[in-house]
């Protein structure tokens, strides 16, 4: 992908050229001295870099290329530091422009590096302006390097982040290329872009949609996986037909999965949704009609395969019974949340409530279901409840919007900078009865999405009480619109 004039100075022994060319490309850009080379070196670890040079404007300009490893992500990383080092005159724009614009057009992600200790620099602004003009297709990830000391001083991380966000590329990720701090946040921001790229590439190679050709493939990388569960006769098959409409595509069985794990996939508003286990499950439920137990489909393993669980209830039964949910349904709802899945409750057969005293029955069902869900799953507020009539083909859009909304919340990733700014506000908003009881949280970071999982780093002896954790969970929900999904908060002590 490089233009003429490049030559290889060193050989990279770990990867062949073909393998490298299949990897997504991430370029590190920024004004001189922010630590681009330091970050490059950390990302490629001990592997050797390939060095390219190009005779351009009579100046030899080097760009280093290496294979980066960050968590399970592999990508091709380019360090543009050599461009400035060799240049002797002209603005940063002039120095990098001719060369970089070319490289940018073949990059998949861009790390815009700044220096936390130096703060926002006029040259950062210049780089930002240049990027907006020359690489509008890339969404730069703003990175604040040399942040190691900021973590030690209360509030300084948040105020530096505030300053950097004035560049207009969102909140920065705080890292230290020298100490390795913040690499997990960097991983979280690169992951969606790079995984999308790899999935697209493997889809291009294999039109059957079999991900097994992608070496890193695992279930967590697949698009939205939806499981429809519920007791026999609540209307799952009917709902399924409504959801699939004529877009139905049957795929599989795939390598690595059991024969009966056949997946059904369909499109909704440009998004692919997989229905987990549907084919096998449909056959089994037909055999099990009338049985009171949940089908095999609803075992823990099936639940884990799905991202979102749609639990179907029967409105007719709710009106005639005192409890809105039967034991089996309570079990499945609780289990879904315990396993960290997103839960959407679907009350089907609403057409049965039509006619006689319709509005009273509707209110009755709504209240009964919402109350019961809150009672059985007190740890998650706002689990969505959708009312439909599958028989009349009503509710497809409502169900799918709710499923997608829940999935997106479930995938939320919040940067450490943003979270720490939030933490400061939240801690001052809350008044502790006893000042001494106030937890000393040094910083707060999201370590995982799907579901969102956070770690609070607390001072040595202090510990978060259950009340503190509940308070933080509720505040996260309210402030980042994360209601209805499980959120996890862990704590670690630091000296
Ligand atoms: P480049 O010009 O952007 O490639 O910057 P370099 O990687 O050459 O780094 C410039 C200077 O910043 C060097 O002295 C590095 O040792 C220093 N540096 C790089 N990363 C960090 C960091 O995370 N923390 C601190 N304190 N210094 C760093
Ligand atoms: P499954 O066992 O959960 O797959 O349930 P089915 O989809 O086979 O439906 C069981 C029965 O409920 C069938 O007779 C359906 O026609 C009926 N049914 C499904 N959805 C509705 C609905 O929205 N309203 C009404 N009145 N009946 C429904």
Secondary structure topology:
Layout: H1 17-21, E1 25-29, H2 36-44, E2 50-56, E3 59-70, E4 73-79, H3 81-86, H4 92-104, E5 109-115, H5 122-134, E6 141-145, H6 156-164, E7 173-174, H7 183-205, E8 225-229, H8 236-244, E9 249-251, E10 263-268, E11 271-275, H9 278-288, H10 300-305, E12 308-314, H11 315-320, H12 327-338, E13 342-348, H13 358-376, E14 385-387, H14 396-410, H15 416-429, E15 441-448, E16 453-459, H16 466-480, E17 488-494
Parallel strand pairs: 1-4, 1-5, 5-6, 6-7, 8-11, 8-12, 12-13, 13-14, 16-17
Antiparallel strand pairs: 2-3, 3-4, 9-10, 10-11, 15-16
One guanosine-5'-diphosphate binds next to α8.
Pfam families: KH_dom-like, MMR_HSR1
Keywords: GTP-binding, Nucleotide-binding, Repeat, Ribosome biogenesis
Domain GTPase Der C-terminal KH-domain-like: 413-492
Write a brief caption for the model.
With 495 residues, the protein is α/β, with parallel strands linked by helices. Helix content is 37%, strand content 21%. It has 16 helices and 17 strands.
Structure explained in plain terms:
This protein has 495 residues and is an alpha/beta fold. It is built from 16 helices and 17 strands. The protein has helices at residues 17-21, 36-44, 81-86, 92-104, 122-134, 156-164, 183-205, 236-244, 278-288, 300-305, 315-320, 327-338, 358-376, 396-410, 416-429, 466-480, and strands at 25-29, 50-56, 59-70, 73-79, 109-115, 141-145, 173-174, 225-229, 249-251, 263-268, 271-275, 308-314, 342-348, 385-387, 441-448, 453-459, 488-494. A seven-stranded mixed sheet has the order 2-3-4-1-5-6-7, with helices on both faces. The protein has a seven-stranded mixed sheet with strand order 9-10-11-8-12-13-14, with helices on both faces. It has a three-stranded mixed sheet with strand order 15-16-17. A hairpin with a 4-residue loop joins strand 15 and strand 16 (453-459). Helix 4 (92-104) runs parallel beside helix 5 and helix 6 (156-164) crosses helix 15 (416-429). The longest helix has 23 residues, at 183-205. The chain is globular and about 75 Å long. It starts with 16 loop residues before the first helix and ends with a strand. The model is unreliable at 1-13, 52-61, 85-90, 205-221, 247-262 and 279-299 (pLDDT under 50). One guanosine-5'-diphosphate is lined by residues 30, 32-38, 81, 145-146, 148, 176-178.
